[in-house]
Structure formats: C-alpha cells, structure tokens
Amino acid sequence: MKNKKTTMARAGGKNLLTTLIDRQREQAPLSADKFPFVSIVTPSFNRRHFLPYLLYMFQYQDYPAHRRELVILDDSETSSQDLIDQLVDADSGENIRYIFSPKRLALGEKRNKLNELAIGEYIICMDDDDYYPADKISYTLHEMKKNRAMFSASGQIYIWYSHLNKIYKTVKFSDNFALNGTFACHRRFLKNHRYEDQCMLGEERGFLNGFTETVLQIAPEKSILCISHSANTFDKDFVMGSATPAEFTLEDWVTDKTLLAHYRRMSHAPVSQKVNWQAFEKIIVITESDDPEKGLDLQKQWTALGMSPSQLMAFPLHKHSVHAIAESQTHLDILTLAQRSGWKNYLLLSDDVQFIRQEKTVLDVNKFIHALQQIDWKVAMLGADHINISILNSLNRVVRINQGEVPCAYAVNQPYYSTLLKNYQQGLALLSENSLMEEYRLDKYWSSLMATDSWLALYPSFAYCPTLWNEEQQKYLDSAHRFFRKEARVADSEEENQHADD
Question: What is the 8-class DSSP label of residue 212?
Fold first, then answer.
C-alpha cells in the first residue's frame, strides 16, 4: 500500500472546493465537538474523472467539517494522488486520505481495508460515482441516534439512467435487504461483521449474514441517487425491468448547479462512433402524425444519427379504430412493398423510437450488424420487450429471442420475406374477425415463428420506446423499462441452445 497520508497538498490560492469547506466551517455550530466523528469510506477503481465530484460532495456536507474524514482506497492501474493534490489546498485542514494500492483488490477485501483505515465512531459508505444530498451525514446520524441503531442503510433506492435521462425506483425485497452504497454503522458493529475478502459483486450478503441482520431503513430520497453510466461495474440497465418509473426529474433532485452540470454532461456525452446503418438497404419509419413539420424534424433526427436520406422512407400508420389492426396492416404493407421492390433487407422503426447513447453499446451494435452480414439471418431486433430468450456465446449482448413483443426496431432479411408475409396475413385475418383476441396481435402471433426459427436480438435493447399507448387506461405510459428486462425467461434446455447456435 502506498501514500497512507492525509492529503495536504500544494500551497497557494484557495480553489472552489476549499472555499466550500471554509464557508461551511464558518456556519458550523459552536457545539460541533459534540458531534461524533464520522469516516466516509470510498472504494475506487479507474474512476479518476469522478473523484473531483466525490470530493465536492464530501466538502459540501452540512455536518461539521472537523468532525468527519474521507478515506479513498484506489487500486486503479495508475494513482490519482496528483489529482487529489490539485483539488485540496495545503492549508485547508481537510481530512481527506487518498490511499493507492498498486495491487488489484477484490471488492470485499477493499471494503474491509477501508473499515480498518477509518478512525470514526461512525462509518458511512459513499461510492465514487453516485449522488449524495448535502445532509447525507447529518440526517443518517440523526436517524441512527434517534432509533439507537447500530446499522442503517437503504434497501430501495432511486437510479438515474444517464443515457435515458429517467429516474426509476428499485423494488423492495425485504426489511433486512440493504445496498452497500447506503451503508452506515457504528464502529462496534464491525466487531461481528466483515465482508468476504474475495467477493467481487453482491458483497452486502456476506457482510449482513445473508440479510438476517436488523437494518434501520433510511428513506431513499435522503440516502442516495444511484447514477447509471457507461463505466458502471454492474450493468444497472437490467435493474430497470423490475423498477418503477419516478415522477420527478434529475433537476428536482439535484439542485447544486456544479453537480447538475456534471450529470448533464454525462447525459449528453457525444458518441464518437456511429451505427453502421448502411448495412440496411431501406430504413422505414412508421409515422403516426400527418404534420409535415414533424416529418422534417424526424428526417433531420435520423440523418444526424448517420442514416442516409436515400435509405429513409416515411410510412404512415394505417388508419383504423383498432390500434392492433392498424399496426398489423402497416407492417404487412411494408413487408409487401419490400418483397415487391426486391430490397435485400429493411429496418423498420417506430417514429418515437430512441437509441441508447453509449459508446460501448454502439460498439456492440456494430459487431451485431457485422455478424449479420456473415450469416443467413431472418429477423434481427434492435429493440424489443424480451419475454423468452436463449443465450448465445458467440456475440456479446446478442440472444436468440423465442418470444418478444413491442416491435419498435427490427430488421428483416429478404430470404425470409415469404415466411413472415404468410404469418402477417394469417394474423391480420384472425385479428380482423375478432379484434379482442390478443393472441392475434402482430407481436403475439409471430411467436410461432420465433419458436421454430432463429430470430436474433440485442439484449438488453439498443432501441426503445419511452412511452406506449395503454388501451385499458387510454393513455400513454412510461415503458422504457420493458426493453431492459432482466426477468426475461432464459431457455436452458440443450436442444434450445443447440438450435440457437445454428
């Protein structure tokens, strides 16, 4: 271990972070010494660009500045001591300890070492990439002392998905369930609680003895706003499938202008790569609006994504009082046009479809599209509500989809036109006879083909619809989570997996 020291860096003029803590010290009550000393502990790995904002959130806490410390244990490839030295002035008196380990550590071992390094009576976990409110420390300690609790946490949290700009609330599992980024405990609690040293994921279970310990549950809005971004160690997209859409926005939660600007940059980060849309001969966009100005806006939107104007074709949704019939007829008409025109393939999109803005996702999409050019594919889904899938080992994020709904973005290959056309015609005929029978709906009736043929899909989705029309409630509902389900059933029989790899 290196650099086990309290950071007292360069002398000189005060920077923004030091000014923050000086201002907070001036406002601290005279009885600050009566406040228990608190250690904030943070494990870090390859998160250099997040560290300035971690320090910022530590320094803007309303808990007395001289009654708290921040301990960071970093086992990245290279040290960020130089960055910490730039951010913390030599005369600030801030209790910030940055410890660099040249050896890569398992997460459980890293958290144990942090607890050993902490000197506080209370120890609070803060992750390096999440948002914490300014009263995080003071509120947590107030609740723990009021309830005489040795341990507190939140088992249910809010997550902001930077690539969707949406907030979701996770499901509550039990009163004893807790997430590590929200942990707080009295030092005595550590006498009988320790992380499993070799644990790399889900370290909470071992520390809390299989979630059998009593947990003082802290209100999630007073605890953390978890940030989902492209550098997460755990893919939080899958959590969305079981989460509930929140009714508030990032601006409702994050009021600090510096932090809000940071998250906004994360949300609007440019993607250097573009999708290889040129692999599709035609890109058909189903439009529900007759407004020509909206059509022009859509044209600009698609071309900005790298689609060629010569590829793009707007196709109006068929007019019918029953939406399912209108949808089926439209998809049938497009497929008929493709067959008559001799297109080698086509990509069909809903006009409200959105795409994930992440570098790693675009890379996976392009690998998928490249692979399609090497095989005899049938249908490829860039976005779907995955109901039943078979995992493929050959490509990252690519699965065989055995059952899926919501056709917002899918491609069809020319050799498969006749087969799919027959299915569409049969389904539409049955739906026209009885429009209340859901099994005749386009994305229900094609399940018979999915079950026998190899339809491929990106999992989780690259394309999604933010909202979908709900017939029962007669309004549009937030639906992005349907495209990121982890609970999609996975076919695990030998026969299904063998067929999936054909």
Answer: T
Q: Does 319 reside within a domain?
A: yes
- Hey, is 244 helix, strand or coil? strand
What residues make up the domain containing 140?
16-155+174-222
Q: Which structure tokens are listed for 298?
A: 């859509």
Angstrom distance (rounded) from CA 106 to CA 196: 9
Find out whether the peptide bond into 460 is cis, omega within 30 degrees of 0: yes
Question: What is the SS3 assignment for 305?
Answer: coil
Q: Does 442 reside within a domain?
A: yes
**Residue 80, both tokens:** 């960020």
Q: Which CATH number does the domain housing residue 131 bear? A: 3.90.550.10
Ordered alpha helix ranges (H), 132-278:
136-146, 204-207, 250-253, 257-267
- pLDDT per residue as tens digits for the range 229-269: 765 555 566 677 678 889 899 999 999 999 999 999 887 77
Strands (E), 89-195: 96-100, 122-125, 151-153, 158-161, 166-169, 184-186
Total domains in the fold of the chain: 2
User: Between vectors from CA 157 to CA 156 and to CA 158, what angle results, nearest 5°?
Assistant: 145
d(CA 181, CA 202): 11
For residue 89, pLDDT beyond 80: no
What amino acid occupies position 284? I
Question: Which residue spans within 419-474 are E strands per DSSP?
Answer: 456-458, 463-464, 467-470
Cα–Cα distance, 199 to 429 (Å, whole number)? 56
Element housing 402 (H / E): strand 398-413
Beta bridge partners of 153: 217
Close Cβ partners of 391 (under 8 Å, ≥ 6 residues apart): 399, 490, 497, 500
Handedness of CA 169, 174, 175, 181 (dihedral sign): negative
Cβ-count burial 119-132 (b if 16+ within 10 Å, e if not) = ebebbbbbbbbbbb
C-alpha span between 124 and 151 (Å, rounded): 10
Q: How far apart are CA 486 and CA 107, in angstroms?
A: 24
pLDDT band for 104, please (50, 70, 90 cuts).
Answer: very high
Tell me, yes or no, whether 203 and 318 share the same domain: no
Q: What is the mean pLDDT of residues 65-93?
A: 89
SS3 content of the chain, % helix, strand, coil (to 5): 40, 20, 40
Mark whether 203 and 299 lie in a shared domain. no
pLDDT in tens, 311-342: 999 999 999 988 899 999 999 999 999 999 99
Identify the pLDDT of residue 235. Answer: 57
Q: How many Å apart are CA 22 and CA 225, to the nearest integer?
A: 26
Residue 390 lies in a domain: yes
pLDDT tops 90 at residue 491: no
In whole angstroms, give the CA distance from residue 77 to residue 79.
Answer: 7
Nearest CA-CA partner of 245 in 333, 169, 301, 304: 169
> What pLDDT is attached to residue 472?
78
Looking at the fold, whether 214 and 284 belong to one and the same domain comes out as no
